[in-house]
Amino acid sequence: MMEKKNNKVSVICPYCGAGCRFELIVENGKAIGIDYEPDHPVALGALCPKGNSAVELLNHPERLTFPIMRERNGKTRRITWDEALQFVANKLRQIREDFGPDAVGFLASAKVSNEENYLFQKLARLFGSPHVDHCARLCHSPSIVALSRALGSGAMTNPISDLENSRCILIIGSNFSENHPIVSRWVLNAKDRGAFIIAVDPRKTPTTEIAHIHLMIRPGTDGILLNAIMAQILREGLANYDFIASRTEGFEHLKDKLRQIDIIKAAKQVGVPVGDIVITARKYATSPSSAIVYCMGITQHRYGTDYAASCANMALLCGHIGRSGAGIFPLRGQNNVQGASDMGALAEFLPGYVRTDDVEKRQNVAKLWGCDDLPSGGLSVTEIIGAILDGKIKALFVMGENPIVSDPCSAETEKALSMLDLLVVQDIFMTETANFAHVVLPAAMWAEKSGSYTNTERRVQWSPKALNPPNEAKSDLWIIGNLGKLLGLWEIPPQPEDILREINLAIPFYGGITPERIATSKEGLIWPCLDENHPGTSILYSEKFHRENGRATFVTSEVDFEASISHEPFSLITGRVAVHYNSGSITRKLPSLLRYTPNLELTIHPSDASELGIKDGSTVLVKTAKGTVETVAKVSSSVRQGSVFMPFHFPETNRLTPKDLDPIARIPSFKDAKCRLLRKDK
Amino acid sequence: MQSMASWKIFINPERCIGCHACEMACEQTHGGASNIKVQCAPVFCRHCEVPPCITVCYRNAIEMRNGKILLIKDLCTNCGICIFACPFGAIMTTTITRRIEPKEKAHRDVPLLSRLFGGKIFPKERQIVLVHKCDGCVERAEAGVARPACAATCPSGAIECKDIAQASSSKRIRTYEVHLVTHLTHREGTSL
Amino acid sequence: MKGILIRKDLCIGCRACASACEHGIIQIEETKEFRKIIVSGSCPDECKNCKDVCPTEAIIGEKPTSPQEVLFRLTLCRRCGMPTAPEPMLNFISRRMNQPLFELDLCITCRQQLMWEAIRER
Amino acid sequence: MKEIFVRIDRCVGCRSCELACAVEHSRSKTLFGAITEVPRPKKRVYVEYIEHRKVPFVCRHCEDAPCAKACRTGALTQDPVTRIVTHNPDRCIGCWLCVMTCPYGMINREEERRIAVKCDRCPEREEPACVSACPTKALVFAEEQEFTKLVRQETLSKLLPGYAS
After folding, report:
1. Which of A123, A354, A424, A472 has the smallest number of CB atoms closer than 10 Å to its CB?
2. Cβ–Cβ contacts within 10 Å for residue A364, how many?
């Protein structure tokens, strides 16, 4: 593996949001191995199992290599690029004439580069359709809404490596040992230095094993727990009153609400001993610098936005923000979900988090793009599926997404996709969604095109092109650029560097992240980076918050969280596994990863299992309002009594999940699913 | 630079998160067969300084070269005796199938079928159980990369390269900093 | 055409000869409790790969009467009951190690689990 | 059972305990004999200089010693009654599992024989060598109750003058 004549190209890992970097060893146009970069700030060169499978992914035999057209009768035939793009352009123009521009939906992707997402949402909005969204809706849209309202921006406040300096780390709703493995290094370093680690998770996971105390809460009671902890902090007078006085507002409202909370009752509802809540409150409040690390366990709920807001409230209450080791760490799932949200590939946001209903700022962006106004009132991913079913949306352009597996209630999604007049899917594999597509466009992978990616700690890194895509596959930028040309939106398809310069103009906090600065540097720049010689800011809010008056605000939710507890037979928790990635459309195709978790398993508590007569390995029928799935049972005490766990990397899981949305962030409440179990005797 | 012998591949077992990244990295660096098996922490050759596997190997196919225990492929007969001499089960096996070039004289009598096929069939391939073990990434070390692939890729820092004495003293210092400091301040009444 | 004969008293049931025999004449079949070394057919005169590799020189160059089988009962692991290795092989190991340092009748997976189990009862 | 207790604030960092320990574990058991011996005798007690403080570390002979449990070849065995962990050099294969699992870093390496060395609490001596060598009585070899009584008396002697005046 160590021959001298091949060349090593330093690329970003295409999987999770950590943004690790490694060297891809390329020999005459083919990836043959990887090497590690011990001086990269994110993870000192470490890679998780998924990162190590990069070569196998690049050389995968089943990759899409030429455009495919599906006829009316379902037969598919190979077509050329001109034919494909021409057909899509004509069909889109024709649908726009017949039903108007907002009859077309656009799904961007959190796995493509910033430039491609920027151009994609620009194409959609110049075409006239307000419906641009991507899967950040399904993961951290509550964080974007809640944190930007409370603090001014929805991103992580400190870099991941800064967790090493925390003296107390509260991990709530995150299983980073499996989903962001490199985070565990920094948390373990903190633990070695004497930090106190608290884990809140309805399941026992490798992450909760790191913690000193594990609050095994009843699923869906995160909000009650957070309020109880804050109430205890207030009752013991451990809040940081001068921080509250000098840098926040709206504290009175929260104080009155927290006064009424009876911590004993709350502990009973949450299902953890009161002592643990008191210890958590004291340790978090009294430690010199505390961090809150959270992920899907907080956001994918009916009240996800309120739970995320409670995390912000808790940090503000004790002043644990804006310092080394103190901050809020929402861990993003995909390698460029932070970048895609920054680029405005969201229904209610234009690039730089300009709200689409803010007419005055919207017109500035329109002026930049050379038109007078831009559409607003776009629908989110799940609402688009609903609109298709009502016949309002006729065409859908999907880039690098697999809604059938990642969206809730797949039966509805399948029905909707089959009703469309035009479904275009641009992906690297023939995914479940691509099977329904009229036109399938082969895309290049991350290492076969150059572009910038923003990881979860707001670090924008450039990933150069290491090798050419397999025969006819093209980079997403080439596809969108040429489609836009055919639609008459711009003359020449732009290069990544030109788009990045346009991004520097359009988004103030990307102002200084120019191609010249990041193309050669391995660490990249952490936004906000306002101009050419701005070094980037690794820790946010050290002086003031990104709000008009520079003060953060407490967001008190009027919602009665008790209502969210329901005592139906089983609560179904969906989540991730170390070796698989999101919809699994990539990792399920890689034998070196599939062998560790080959098939879907339902984890059930031993006493529930014996009650239903289920043994290890027996087949089980899982029933919810949305569907029924048959799977294999695994008996383990890693779940609470009365709850079961299923990883969502397999197509069956999201057949079961409910569709009711969080009212504000419109995120489906994956984690509030309820189900019934039946033993299926052979 | 301390001698290579004292530079050990050091495992902090309580840091292992069971993610199998080391197995995958080892597999890629050694052409498809991983020398690591993750149980509740990674298991691979400890490169012992008084190795039982060397004493057991009747063909001296296992050799200690500057701190690393290496299995010499062309001397090794894949007999599998050393596998049961290793107290940790760190010597591993992979079953491969290898083609047989038909030689005119060599044949296999198969009693059952002897009447039907005149008693001779010529098998096309055969199963071999290959014996392999961790070589401390000697190839990487010679190419100037100090750390073995598993230590380089381990996301949680469970596998590291440390000198024994340095590892022990860092543990002592950490014990002091984490546990003894608070004890001391109470006894003396001084706050550090 | 001469064949080979495995002396049952000397053979310890390792896999050296099966791996060395390029013509596939020596095959090994393994079940949960038995390992069977099957010698069938005759091999070219000049080939003596198996004789070179055999740790106990148990292979001699005489014409066997009929296809030969050597059967070994596999000792079962003390901790989990899975098969480990033939009895003579374990004796060969303890002989060469003058006094056994540890229990030989543990299978590989158990040894690996016991390596770290002292610290982490996961 | 008698244990070695450490009064950290009394340690002046003179390292005579380390010297005494090495001499005790040499063949000649005399300082001048020990210097010329091969294998060079190794200390089992360690004084660390951290910030401005000197801290002596002695093996605690833990109740369920992780090192004894981790040792796969029976080199480190714990006496069920006295709880003392002793090391048998012939069985040690130098795999260093004990070094990795000991939370306090009390096991060291002897280069010549490439085996582990650790404190065995001087079985032949009535009082361990390091305790008798310590000039400031930072190391105390006593029963638990005796030591806690000693601590009470010491604290009382500090409090009394203030109280009496």
Report:
1. A472
2. 12
For the cut 60, the answer to whether the pLDDT of residue B1 exceeds it is no
Q: Residue B143: its pLDDT value, please?
A: 83
B and C make contact (3+ CB pairs below 8 Å):
yes
Q: Cβ of B109 under 8 Å from any chain C Cβ?
A: yes
Q: Give which of B46, B39, B37 is closest to B11, Cα–Cα.
A: B46
| Pair A36, B153: CB distance under 8 Å | yes
* CATH class of the domain whose range is A81-136+336-506: alpha beta
B77 reaches C (C-beta below 8 A): yes
Task: Specify whether the CB–CB gap between A508 and A546 falls below 8 A.
Answer: no
Report the distance separating Cα C90 and Cα C87, nearest Å: 5
At residue C23, the pLDDT reads 81
Interface of B with C in 151-190 (CB under 8 A): none
3-class SS at A412?
Answer: helix
Looking at the domain A568-679, which fold is it? Barwin-like endoglucanases (2.40.40)
At C21 the pLDDT is: 87
Tokens 């949402």 sit on residue: A121
- b/e per residue, D86-111, with b = 16+ CB within 10 A? bbeeebbbbbbbbbbbbbbbbbbbbe
Check which CATH number belongs to the domain holding B82 and give it. Answer: 3.30.70.20
CB contact under 8 A, C44 and B109: no
**Which residue range forms the structural domain that includes residue B153?**
7-164
Among A residues 591-620, those touching chain B with beta carbons less than 8 Å apart: 592, 596
- Which residue from A291, A16, A295 is spatially nearest to A172, judged by alpha carbons? A295
Any domain includes B187? no
Exposed, middle or buried: residue B101 (CB in 10 Å: 0-12, 13-18, 19+)? exposed
For residue B147, the chain A residue with the least C-alpha distance is A38
With beta carbons under 8 A apart, name residues in chain C contacting D70.
115, 118-119
Could you tell me the mean pLDDT of each successive run of 10 residues in chain A, 682 residues long? 66 92 91 91 92 91 92 87 93 92 91 93 92 89 90 92 95 93 94 92 92 92 93 93 92 91 92 94 94 92 90 94 93 91 91 89 89 88 90 92 87 90 92 91 93 93 92 92 91 91 91 90 90 89 88 86 71 87 86 88 92 90 88 92 89 84 84 85 66
Compute CA distances A283 → A168, A213, A232, A235, A279, whole Å.
Answer: 7, 11, 12, 14, 6
Lowest mean pLDDT among A244-253, C57-66, C111-120, D9-18: C57-66
* Residue A235: both structure tokens together: 């009752």
pTM: 0.91
* C-alpha to C-alpha distance for A97 and A490, rounded to whole angstroms: 20
Contact between A466 and A448 (Cβ < 8 Å): yes
Identify the CA nearest to A141 among candidates A304, A321, A318: A304
Tokens of B151: 């230590």
Which region among A186-195, A323-332, C65-74, D120-129 has the lowest average model confidence (pLDDT)? C65-74
Mean pLDDT (chain B, rounded):
82
**Looking at beta carbons, which residues of chain A come within 8 Å of B20?**
49, 578-579, 596
Going from N- to C-terminal start, the domains of chain A cover 81-136+336-506, 141-330, 568-679
Q: What is the distance between the alpha carbons of residues A364 and C20, in angstroms, rounded to a whole number?
A: 78
Which chain B residue lies closest to C95 (C-alpha atoms)? B56
Give residue ranges of B with CB < 8 Å to any A CB.
Answer: 15, 17-21, 23-25, 27-29, 139-140, 143, 145, 147, 149, 152-157, 174, 177-178
pLDDT for res B120? 60
Strands C34-39 and B159-163: unpaired
Complex-level ipTM: 0.88
Nearest chain C residue to D65 by CA distance is C118
Q: Which residues pair with A197 in a beta bridge?
A: A169
